[in-house]
């Protein structure tokens, strides 16, 4: 294999005229982080709501929660990304569809919504499992204290369930962070898309994707470290 390694390529001016190749990769990293954080905000709150619905005694709430989870969890993320970006603007009223198409940074908003709804189905299962893993006595204790259903979940069940599912929720966040790379298919210039652009412009494919890999590893290690400190901070004394 006759390949010319050039690690100084990162400091060469990019063809975009807005800085070096390193600047281009860091710009992609910023879009990746922004997309991951915004979509996680949707996923966490919507997923928590759906997860709670799946543990309520109401059959209607259970049916809605189950339908949501099965729909979004069983359709591939790439298909959902295309549906949100290409199909949705065509099936809504014309004025709404035109407004969606003309949004500045439309791929970013589409990726955020798509990843948020997709990841929410997985978060919902984590929340459901966390609540159902708690002793039945905790729910009955809330009832005995005169709490409403909302208060029982707010002050008794959810705080303890979140402590239990913090490690798997960290894994879901990391999956969500890596899933942002799928958004390159709709034109979002996140980290993977920037690495592909760099290798197409410079033909230094190994350098481009080695740098992208290292950036993914670094940001993932930061998340894992932060989650470890958070887990220690919320641990109930005497349980560890």
Question: Characteristics of this structure?
Answer:
mainly alpha, ArtM/GltK/GlnP/TcyL/YhdX-like, 240 residues, transport, transmembrane transporter activity
Order of helical and strand elements: HHHHHHHHH
Structural class: mainly alpha
Low-confidence stretches: none
Cα gyration radius (Å):
22 Å
| Range of helix content | over 70%
**Separate helix tally:** 9
Main β-sheet description: none
Question: What is the mean predicted local confidence, pLDDT?
Answer: 91
Q: How large a portion of the residues is in β-strands, by DSSP E?
A: under 5%
Instruction: Using the alpha-carbon principal axes, give the shape.
Output: globular
Number of DSSP E strands: 0
Distance between the termini: 54 Å
Protein name: Amino acid ABC transporter permease
Domain ABC transmembrane type-1: 29-227
InterPro entries: AA_ABC_transptr_permease_3TM, ArtM/GltK/GlnP/TcyL/YhdX-like, MetI-like, MetI-like_sf
Organism: Methylobacterium brachiatum
What report would you give on this structure?
- By secondary structure, the chain is an all-alpha fold.
- The protein is 75% helix and 0% strand.
- The relative contact order is 0.15.
- It is found in: Cell inner membrane; Cell membrane.
- One of its GO terms (molecular function) is transmembrane transporter activity.
- It comes from Methylobacterium brachiatum.
- Keywords: Cell membrane, Membrane, Transmembrane, Transmembrane helix, Transport.
- This is Amino acid ABC transporter permease.
